[in-house]
## 1
Amino acid sequence: MKSILGVKTSQPLSSLREIHGIGERVADRLIEHFGTEEAALQAICEGDIASISEVNGISHNFALSLARYARSRAEGCSISDFLRTKEALDIYSRLLELIKSFAHTTHARDKLNLFLPITCFAHGSYPGKAGFRKRIP
């Protein structure tokens, strides 16, 4: 993300391979499933977790991490910018779990996870195949 006078600016995605965790094989499967690279990018950018996780070899958690990464690129703000301290992360996590308890569908819970990040790069997490739970050694 570029910084202009200390304010981060967004960088729209133009290729599947720009997304962390997508290599040639995953990109090929996404294109095969959605028909075109543009359609696959659109599904990821719109957070269509259900459709993305239908792709062979893409789990629900990985689909969620792809959508989160795309969202952070589009908004020009990473998760670490949002949640800077362990205390903020703890409070946020408890509030999100409470809010999610009112969601009636898996789709609604997924959308809540997209709009509000549940982990923090500042604490060593990054989006990977198993979601944001991987730790940097």
Note: The longest strand covers residues 131-135.
## 2
Amino acid sequence: MRKICPVCHESFEVKSTRRIYCSVRCRKLHHKEVYYDRERPIPIYEVGDKVLRTFVCRKCGLLVMVTSKTDKRTKFCSPHCERLYWKHPEKYRKEEEKFKQSQTDKEIVK
């Protein structure tokens, strides 16, 4: 049986009917396009919305208020910030430690 790859549009022979892509490279490229490169809307908060949880983004320091039960964010404000954070986590961990130290210093002064 022959199929056409949706990424490179090449014809290829399949051994299984479940196979969609001609190679691992095409499969990964398509997965990246579909799941990681698309723009995901960041929710806009309305006055009076019940806030379920709040957190500060570990990468950019933005205060995030989660109002939807389907919103699973707990550490990062966006997929972009998450990717950048995990590229160089040691850099941001040092910044987090400095921020926490400054917050405890402020509490001690009060």
Note: The mean pLDDT is 81.
## 3
Amino acid sequence: MKNSQHQHMNALARILGAFILTLLFGFVGYYAGLKLGWVLAMELVAGLIAGFVGAVLRITPMDFIFTWLVGVGLLLATSDLLGVVGHVLFSAGLTAILGNLYLIVRLSELTDEERKALLRF
């Protein structure tokens, strides 16, 4: 496989990973929010967690932006079950972008010794 084909497959895997993380954590947050009565707050927290996990898995903020844009499109286009999926992707995706950016910046500030110690853990 050529190097450019490998890069395209890698980008597709990152986008799919961001989508799955946001959807999975977002729906867990949505369900927990229904039980607790704070749907939006729980979705936002779930999005932060998805962003943190994505940063550890080397998923970039641009991949989460794609997921957030899919959520915006679904939210504006429909009002039934796909609208709920759009709402989850919109709210959890927005905070996933912020959480991902935050953790990437924090990890880049680590020294080599701290990074090695973190990877051993």
Note: The first helix runs from residue 3 to 36.
## 4
Amino acid sequence: MSEIPHAEIPHAEIPHAEIPHPEIAALLARLADAWNGGDATAYAALFTEDADYITFDGTHTRGREAIESTHRWLFDGPLKGSTMATGGNATVKPLADGAVLVIAAGGTAVDGLHRPSTVSFTAVRTPEGWRFASFQNTRVAS
């Protein structure tokens, strides 16, 4: 299995069109747009009601409501004004009808310091459209 290259370019330059699944590329773009706008409601809306969300430090958040409240606190506090890069060099692997695994280079920038990550998502087709059912962020060691 080859290693996924890590995003070393600003978010605006990540070519989402390279992702082989257009709906997933759009979902990743909406995720970054919500983060970059500091919009916790829009960010959480991209997850299923019962989503699992695991941060770089192992914190496990369960459910859309908890994802929203956590991100509202982050966007109003320690991550205010931060930016997200996601979707770079993403791979999309079908798991079953209406379910895919997404692995991508990503990361955030806070006060000009880029913190690269490798992120994984399970995306599922729902009546609302594609949503993330799980998220795992692994910070890339420097």
Note: Residues 1-18 have pLDDT under 50 and may be disordered.
